[in-house]
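> call design_seq(struct)
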């Protein structure tokens, strides 16, 4: 019987785990959650002037250092080549993801949304394939979250995006206490020229204080949350102020004045 919460993070490239969601991974990894990080490629196309083999070795080593900073010990690679996920046989990739889901049986899965944030074909393809795999396995009570497009993805603290913008209920994860972990993980990806280089104590003040995710599965009219694992509750929708006043007046006819 599983007693520890389980978070499965599936992403295309090294550094995808650190820049947009490193604080979230660290927060859960250091708070009694087993975090499995799966990287579909080794980022072989990500270092100009380096051969794919050489670049892949460098970026794998960087990812391993970043994962250690985030408290993630279960790191896996699918072994696909950077930039080719759209050409990978869909049934094969979905099948491998199905096997992962059945093995790990996560409570929560994190990945990119259909837009891939940047529109990168690897991001978009992996989002589609993991969603198909998640639907096929149908794990009881499991949730699938997409990285939400918001100020957080641009490294700015801000208000959580509205559900209408994010495309569903939003999980706002406060990473204030884990920004230093995230900063160290970002700096581990030296080949990617990470931002905010310098004094860590000063630089973490520039990092996002929250990271945001959109609930993709289960589908439903759920309220926003501040915890990926918190019980889902129905969303309360309040009518606009003028309509509320009209409804109140309708229930109390004496509120209308007669001329």
């Amino acid at each position: 019987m599983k007693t520890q919460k389980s978070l499965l993070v599936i992403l295309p490239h090294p550094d995808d785990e650190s820049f947009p969601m490193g604080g979230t991974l660290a927060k859960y990894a250091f708070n009694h959650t087993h975090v499995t990080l799966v990287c579909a490629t080794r980022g072989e196309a990500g270092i100009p002037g380096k051969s794919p083999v050489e670049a892949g070795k460098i970026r794998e080593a960087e990812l391993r250092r970043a994962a250690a900073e985030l408290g993630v010990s279960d790191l896996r690679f699918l072994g696909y080549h950077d930039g080719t996920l759209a050409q990978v046989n869909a049934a094969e990739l979905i099948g491998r993801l199905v096997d992962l889901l059945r093995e790990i049986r996560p409570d929560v899965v994190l990945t990119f949304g259909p837009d891939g944030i940047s529109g990168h074909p690897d991001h978009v393809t992996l989002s589609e394939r993991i969603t198909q795999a998640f639907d096929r396995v149908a794990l009881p009570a499991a949730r699938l979250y997409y990285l939400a497009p918001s100020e957080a993805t641009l490294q700015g603290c801000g208000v959580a995006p509205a559900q209408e913008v994010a495309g569903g209920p939003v999980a706002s994860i406060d990473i204030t206490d884990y920004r230093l972990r995230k900063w160290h993980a970002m700096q581990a990806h030296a080949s990617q020229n990470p931002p905010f280089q310098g004094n860590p104590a000063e630089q973490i003040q520039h990092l996002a204080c929250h990271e945001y995710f959109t609930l993709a599965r289960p589908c439903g009219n759920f309220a926003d949350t501040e915890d990926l694992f918190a019980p889902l509750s129905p969303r309360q929708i309040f009518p606009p102020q003028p309509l509320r006043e009209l409804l109140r007046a309708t229930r109390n006819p004496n509120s209308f004045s007669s001329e």
